[in-house]
Amino acid sequence: xxxxxxxxxxxxxxxxxxxxxxxxxxxxxxxxxxxxxxxxxxxxxxxxxxxxxxxxxxxxxxxxxxxxxxxxxxxxxxxxxxxxxxxxxxxxxxxxxxxxxxxxxxxxxxxxxxxxxxxxxxxxxxxxxxxxxxxxxxxxxxxxxxxxxxxxxxxxxxxxxxxxxxxxxxxxxxxxxxxx
Length: 180
Known about the structure:
The protein is α+β, with helices and mostly antiparallel strands. The protein is built from four helices and ten strands; from the N terminus they run ααββββββββαββα. It is about 30% helix and about 25% strand. Strands 1-8-4-5 form a four-stranded antiparallel sheet, with no helix packed on it. A four-stranded antiparallel sheet has the order 2-3-7-6, with no helix packed on it. A hairpin with a 5-residue loop joins β4 and β5. The mean pLDDT is about 90.
């Protein structure tokens, strides 16, 4: 199964984040990286976009630009809908930042159906899997020289830890110890 075309930008950015360029010597195929991303996907159904007003001469307010608030890193297969829930086509789309612009005034509300991804969490997952692949690496000592290949595992896991700090917050479960 090939990776979805609408994931090309996200997969490329994930490759850059984990330092695994495509081509000879790559650790993960595009399909594998897509699986890491899909595990960190959030689906949005009729999420209301925030209008960005433009004030023209005489104080006339138009709405030709919309953004998705804090949601970013969208898969490029989303669909936008106008106030009557008919599909509307923006003139430009910035899927990375969640911003869409129309050629002329587009009355609010505008909704989106689509998927966003947590690149940092997917990157950390990929790096931890990469470290697991390196588990067979070993250190070599010959005379007074030492070659430490196991340092790759430590560095890969350190990169994963750094990405974990940047991942989106998720739900947490708290348990009280004073209750039975």
